[in-house]
Amino acid sequence: MAENTLVITADDVSSAAKKIKGHIEHTQTKQSKTLSQIVGADIFLKFEIFQFTAAYKERGALNRLLALSPEEKKNGVIAMSAGNHAQGVSYHATRLGIPATIVMPFGTPFNKVKRTEELGADVVLAGNVLEEATAEAMRLSEEKGYTFLHPFDDPLVIAGQGTVAQEMLEDIPDLDTLLIPIGGGGLISGMAVAAKAVNPNIKIIGVQTESFPSMKNAMDGSTHTFDSPTIAEGIAVKTPGTYTQAVVKKLVDDILIIPETRIEEAIVLMMEIEKVVVEGAGATGLAALMEFPEKFKGRKVGMVLTGGNIDSRLLASAIMRGMARDGRLSRLRVTMLDVPGSLAKVSEVVANVGANVLELRHQREFGAVSLKMTEMEMVIEAKDKAHADLVVVQLEEAGFIVSEAKTV
C-alpha cells in the first residue's frame, strides 16, 4: 500500500452496498429525543441490532464471502471471532452453501457460541484472547486449506462495514459527527472512508473501553494499560489492524476512552429509554456521550448500535447493578432488639414509606451485637435515592439502628 493511499475508497463501499443489497437490512436511523435531551446534543441511532444476526458484522462478512473463488467456496472458510463476525460468517456461508469453521476464545458468552452453531458453522474454542484464537484459526487454515476471513483487517470486510455510514448519511444527510466503537478498527475505517467522501468536514470520533485502548495507544503513542476483562468483549482487541490503523490515522478526528461502569450504565439506559437491548460494544457510543457530554453539545451525532448479542446473565447483572447505583436498590443493615414483633415493625415502616422488601437475612450468630440484639440485612426497592433515604430516616425514628451496605 503506497504512502497516503488508503486500503479502500468510497467506490469500494458503494460496490459493497450493491453486492450485499437484498441480503442485508437497511436498518433505520432514528432520532432519540430523550437521549438528545439528556446529553444536550441531537442524537440519531443506527439500529444495526435489527440485522438477522443482531449485528453489523454481517455486512463485511457477506462482502468477503461473495468474493471467494469457486474452489475457495468448495474448500470452506474459517474465521476467528468473539461472536458477531462469527455469526455473520456462519449465517451467510451456510446460506451460500460454503462450509464454515469458527474459532472463538474461551470465555465467549454461551449464547454467542450456541447461536453460531445453530447458524451452521463448526465452532472450535481456543485461546483466552482474540489474538490466541487468531493463531489457532491461522493454523487450521494452513492445515485444512480453509480461506481465512479476518474480522477487521481485510479490505472487503472494511468496505462492507462502510455501508453503515453510507446508509446513515443517505437517511440523515446533515449529520456532523459519527460516534463509532473501535476494536480492531474495521467498522470505523469503513465508515470514515464513506462519510468523509460525502462530507469532508464530518467529525469521526472513535470509542474504546479503558480495558482495551489499543487503537488509542497506536495512534498517539499513549501507554494506557490493558485491564481486562470487559463487558464489551466485541471490541476487546489488543492489536488493531494494519490497514485499519492507516485509515484511522488519516481520517479519525479523536478516540475517547471510557470506563467500564459507563458501559454498564449505557446498556441499562438504552433499554429503559429506547426499549432495546444492546451488548457492551454497542453501548459504548452512549457511554462516551455520558462521559464527555461537553464534546458533543449542540452537535448532530450519529451513533451506531452495533450489536445486541449480550449474555442474559450479564444483562441481568447490569440491570441490578444499575438499580443499585441510582438508589432504586439499597442494602440496609438493621439492628434491633431480638423480641417478637421487631421484624414485623421493620416491615411496617418500609411498607408505610411505600418501598418494597426484596430480601431478608438475620445475623444472630455472626452479628457484632449484644446477645439480646439481632442484626438483619435487608434489600429494598425504592423509586430513587431520595425515597430509599426516607426509608432509613423512618426506620431510625422508629428506634432501629440502620447502616447502608454499599453494593456497587
Features of the shown structure:
408 residues; Rossmann fold; Alpha-Beta Plaits; six-stranded mixed beta sheet
Describe the structure.
This protein has 3 domains: 10-54 and 158-321, Rossmann fold (3-Layer(aba) Sandwich); 58-149, Rossmann fold, CATH 3.40.50.1100; 327-405, Alpha-Beta Plaits. Helix content is 43%, strand content 19%. The protein has 16 helices and 14 strands. The strands form 3 sheets. A 6-stranded mixed sheet has the order 1-2-10-7-8-9, with helices on both faces. The longest helix has 17 residues, at 155-171. Belongs to the serine/threonine dehydratase family. One of its GO terms (molecular function) is pyridoxal phosphate binding. One of its GO terms (biological process) is L-threonine catabolic process. It catalyses: L-serine = pyruvate + NH4(+).
